[in-house]
Amino acid sequence: MQVGSAIRKLRAQRKLTIQQLAEMTSLSVSLISQVERNQVSPSVVSLWKIANAFGVPVGYFFDSPSRENILVRKDQRKKLMFPSSSVVYELLSPYRNHNLEFLMIRIEPGQDTSDGTVAHAGQECGLVLQGRLEIQVGEEFYTLEEGDSICFESSVPHRLRNFGKGPVLAVWVDSPPMF
Questions:
Q1: Residue of 94, 92, 116, 121 whose CA lies nearest to 106
Q2: Model pTM?
């Protein structure tokens, strides 16, 4: 199922109009309509707003594996990529199987994880394995080098940006799961 179709299905199940969803997310009716018809792909921020309005993780809108287990093989990781971004998220934990989510994030030079800051319930911790990562948490900016880690409340608006010359590779934990 495509993302837009999943959003439309959930909106119908919740008996919401596009106008009501637009008001809940501060997105335009036109954008939501185009997304639901799979004419445009939502940005990371737009998809997070929609997921938060429904009270579901972003991963709800993507196809899920048919069975869950406790092991994730390297070649069987679920990859999440947004058409408007070159950032790749790989789920290191089984999909929707725990109260936390373990991710590998790859960010290419000059790329951000979102087109604006995002905020959601929970906490996040990250460890940079490769590259230089700038993290904005609220009004503060932090530069993380290889081996540096950070933990913060996800309710504070935040975003990650690769301002180095090579790719950033980081492991990340979200609780509760976002994808």
A1: 92
A2: 0.69
